[in-house]
């Protein structure tokens, strides 16, 4: 199986967008990245280069100079999935770093095509917590701003 790392503008560690990308699609003017765990990220822009031998791809985002909310920011994301088994209070916890313009849209893109309920809460310090219910599965995503 071939997996790639996708970068923004050039192949530099600081420009990394997503690791372990298994699929890159073009949908309605957006580059849709899907990783090994079926997480998705949608970025409005163009594919600049894909080197399948070295497992790297470069994308260029379309700039939205008129809307500051569209600026990409870097977040630490903590994803919690409670265990629904009786007498088991453990939960699955995943931590990753993501770059996105809007945490809620990032989560909506991740669950696109699924029937979900979303509840978003913002704190004064800029953190965003998003609760997702997809069927009987509840998940919590905590976005903590690292760099803006």
Q: Give the fraction of residues assigned to helices.
A: under 10%
N-to-C series of helices and strands:
EEEEEEEHEEE
Shape summary: globular
Tell me the number of helical segments per DSSP (H or I, 4 or more residues long): 1
- The tally of beta strands, per DSSP, is 10
Main structural class: mainly beta
Q: Could you give a short account of the major beta sheet? A: 5 strands, mixed, barrel
Mean pLDDT: 82
Q: Strands of the biggest beta sheet: in what spatial order?
A: 1-2-3-4-5
Q: What are the low-pLDDT stretches, counting only 5+ consecutive residues below 50?
A: 64-69
Estimated radius of gyration: 16 Å
Summed up, what is this model?
The chain has 148 residues and is mainly β.
Characterise the protein shown here.
The chain is mainly beta and 148 residues long. The chain has two domains: 4-61, no CATH class; 68-147. The chain has one helix at residues 103-110; strands at 4-8, 16-27, 30-35, 40-51, 56-61, 73-82, 91-100, 116-122, 128-134, 137-147. The strands form two sheets. A five-stranded mixed β-barrel has the order 1-2-3-4-5. It has a five-stranded antiparallel sheet with strand order 7-6-10-9-8, covered by helices on one side. Strand 1 (4-8) and strand 2 form a beta hairpin. The longest helix has 8 residues, at 103-110.
């Amino acid at each position: 199986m071939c997996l790639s790392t996708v970068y923004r503008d050039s192949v530099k560690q600081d420009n990394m967008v997503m690791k372990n990308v298994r699929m890159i699609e073009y949908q309605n003017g957006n580059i849709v990245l899907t990783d090994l765990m079926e997480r998705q990220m949608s970025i409005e822009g163009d594919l600049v280069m894909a080197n399948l031998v070295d497992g790297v791809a470069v994308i260029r985002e379309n700039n939205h100079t008129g809307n500051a909310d569209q600026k990409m920011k870097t977040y630490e994301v903590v994803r919690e999935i409670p265990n629904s088994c009786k007498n088991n209070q453990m939960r699955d916890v995943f931590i990753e770093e993501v770059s996105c313009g809007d945490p809620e849209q990032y989560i909506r893109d991740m669950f696109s095509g699924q029937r979900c309920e979303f509840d978003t809460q913002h704190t004064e310090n800029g953190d965003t917590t998003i609760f997702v219910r997809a069927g009987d599965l509840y998940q919590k995503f905590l976005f903590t701003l690292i760099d803006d």
